[in-house]
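Field log, afternoon session.

UNIT: design team B
ACTIVITY: writing a sequence onto a fixed backbone
BACKBONE:
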């Protein structure tokens, strides 16, 4: 296969994006951020506001006070079942080679999130059922803007919260919370934050580029393809409206890595003899490929930003409209 300068540009772009993402994750996931930045201060403030006790209940608890975690479990199990049905339909309709498409990769990633979320929600329901009501803080305790203004019902509660507050100020960071949540919770967050950006990218490219300009025998719009490029975002947004998961900016790096892995996968299978490109704008033999690769790379930032804005709007609007019922995300 003959190589051109724009091929080397594309390879260099993917390599730079991959290395840059890994460097960001190495710095952000591994360093101690106790009190060093605004995100950490907001995290500590949020944790203090819900009682000063740090645990992993925000992985399975609803952002709506009084809502049993079983509702979030039902959303996650139901979403997984429906998406699984459509993915099975897709495989039967086309055969397993359909996984050469980015859509199926992202669709599967969303299902992985719902599967992991269901497991943690089952555990959360068990915790909710076995712990005293007073310890289920996401459901029963009122939200306060300042810990010192809270009225403590007993000296023991006051002493416990003061201890937790002191400990929080020195030790509790997002990484520590993730350790408490366990590996499953960490993977669930990565799947959630990666798929959030990926579904926006997938659906925008499909509805705004492929359907209007690239319709052919393989890209013709039908009910299955329409659902595959709609339900992924719909069910994720429904879950977002109920869950308490954070959405840190630096984890856009996982989203970028996810796309880089897909592109590298395409290069490998074409080097091994695969004959056609599922997305024509990724074809390396085109003189426009460098511009297309660069445009798609840049799109990752606004796609992730769109979902981050949705979560920010959820916190801002609902906390104002329902101050006694809504709990802001950590």
């Amino acid at each position: 296969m003959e190589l051109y300068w724009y091929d080397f540009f594309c390879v260099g772009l993917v390599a730079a994006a991959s290395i840059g993402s890994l460097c960001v994750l190495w710095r952000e996931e591994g360093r101690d951020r106790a009190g060093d930045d605004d995100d950490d201060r907001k995290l500590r403030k949020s944790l203090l506001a819900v009682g000063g006790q740090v645990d992993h209940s925000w992985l399975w608890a609803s952002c709506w006070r009084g809502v049993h975690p079983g509702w979030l479990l039902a959303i996650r199990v139901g979403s997984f079942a429906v998406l699984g049905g459509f993915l099975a339909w897709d495989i039967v309709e086309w055969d397993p080679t359909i996984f050469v498409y980015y859509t199926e990769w992202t669709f599967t990633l969303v299902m992985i999130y719902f599967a992991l979320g269901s497991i943690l929600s089952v555990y959360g329901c068990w915790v909710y059922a076995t712990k005293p009501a007073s310890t289920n803080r996401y459901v029963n305790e009122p939200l306060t803007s300042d810990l010192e203004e809270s009225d403590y019902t007993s000296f023991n509660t006051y002493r416990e919260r003061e201890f937790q507050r002191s400990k929080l100020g020195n030790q509790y960071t997002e990484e520590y919370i993730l350790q408490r949540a366990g590996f499953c919770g960490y993977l669930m967050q990565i799947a959630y934050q990666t798929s959030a950006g990926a579904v926006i990218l997938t659906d925008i490219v499909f509805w705004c580029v492929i359907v209007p300009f690239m319709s052919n025998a393989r890209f013709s719009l039908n009910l299955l393809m329409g659902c595959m490029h709609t339900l992924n975002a719909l069910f994720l947004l429904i879950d977002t409206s109920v869950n308490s998961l954070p959405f840190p900016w630096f984890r856009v790096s996982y989203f970028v890595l996810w796309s880089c892995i897909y592109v590298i996968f395409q290069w490998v299978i074409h080097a091994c003899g695969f004959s056609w490109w599922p997305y024509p704008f990724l074809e390396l033999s085109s003189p426009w490929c460098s511009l297309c690769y660069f445009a798609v790379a840049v799109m990752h930032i606004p796609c992730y930003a769109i979902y981050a804005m949705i979560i920010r709007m959820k916190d801002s609007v609902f906390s104002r409209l329902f101050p006694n019922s809504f709990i802001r995300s950590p």
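LOG NOTE: Confidence is low (pLDDT under 50) at residues 32-37, 43-54, 139-160, 166-174.
NEXT ACTIVITY: expression trials, pending approval
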